[in-house]
Amino acid sequence: MRSTNFCLSTEGADVILATSSDEKYPPENIIDGQSETFWTTTGMFPQEFVICFHKCVIISKLTIQCYLVQTLRIEKSMSKDPVDFEHCIEKDLEYKEGELQTEEFSFPEFQATHLRFIILSAFDTFVSVHRVIAEGIAQDI
C-alpha cells in the first residue's frame, strides 16, 4: 500500500485555524508542499495552527520543517469538528543558526481527522513553519 503525505492541499488538507496571519506568509503555505514558502507568526506565544484532513487518516510518521521553534506540542482529533484534541507529543527542538529545523516524529500508527500544532516557545520573537508532512494511509470507512 502506498504511503501518502496527507498534509498537502492537493490531498484535500486545509489549514482551518492559525493564530496569526501575514498576507505575505499565509498559513496555506504550510500545506503547499514547498520548503521555500512558509507561514510566520506575528508575535507572542503560544501560537498554533490546525490542519484538517476532511477524512480519517492513519498516520505513521510526522515531519515538520520550521525555523526558530523551541518547544512544540502536537495534538490529534478524531472528531468531525476540530474538538476533543488528545496529546501526542511535546518536544524541545534543536536550533542551528541559519538552518531549517527538520523534526521527525515516529509513532505507533494513529488515526486523525485534525492535527493541532502548538508552538509553546521560540528562540526569537517570530518563527516560521515551512512544511508539515503526515505520512500514512487513508482509512476506509
Automatic annotation (TrEMBL):
Q: By what name is this protein known?
A: Intraflagellar transport protein 25 homolog
**Taxonomic source organism:** Gekko japonicus (Schlegel's Japanese gecko)
Q: What is the lineage of its organism?
A: Eukaryota, Metazoa, Chordata, Craniata, Vertebrata
